[in-house]
Design a protein that fits this description.
alpha/beta; three-stranded parallel beta sheet; 3 helices; elongated
Length: about 80
């Protein structure tokens, strides 16, 4: 998953941005959110202070354990 043109635009104009999880495939796990966050950060200029606020795509199969893991993770995650 590569950073999009919109993410580059957001990083240039804003300090933070909520990253929506509705990709193909959607970001349903903390591991996927962390991997996507890393790809966004890699695509930013070296001097960027942009903070991607990661979200999870919640479904009827999302477990309480997954939500707890996401909430305990050191990253800033939004639900």
């Amino acid at each position: 998953m590569a950073a999009s043109k919109g993410q580059h635009h957001s990083a240039f104009h804003f300090g933070r941005g909520i990253v929506m999880p509705n990709l193909k495939p959607p970001i349903k796990t903390t591991a996927a959110a962390v991997a996507y966050r890393e790809s966004i950060l890699k695509a930013l200029p070296a001097n960027s202070d942009f903070i991607p606020l990661m979200t999870l795509y919640l479904t009827d199969t999302t477990t309480c354990e997954e939500i707890k893991l996401a909430s305990e993770y050191y990253l800033q995650l939004a639900f």
